[in-house]
Write a structure and sequence with these properties.
67 residues, mainly beta, three-stranded antiparallel sheet, 1 helix
Length: 67
């Protein structure tokens, strides 16, 4: 996996208007590059009607030696 691209269904967001909804991001067994990777993606619906999508709970993952 080169990158994580979440897909959010607009109909769900508009119909549910969640104050806050967070979902875990599936993790690969290994990473190619050492770095910080998000474990959660959250959707928030503000009082002004704006939607915010964030990646949260970043953890450092280490690539295998020699990768």
């Amino acid at each position: 996996i080169s990158f994580w691209e979440p897909v959010v269904n607009r109909d769900w967001v508009v119909s549910q208007k969640p104050a806050s909804a967070c979902q875990p991001i599936p993790q690969t067994p290994q990473v190619e590059l050492t770095g910080y990777y998000p474990e959660t993606m959250c959707t928030r619906y503000g009082s002004g009607g704006e939607m915010t999508f964030t990646f949260e709970k970043f953890v450092k993952r280490t690539a295998p030696a020699g990768a």
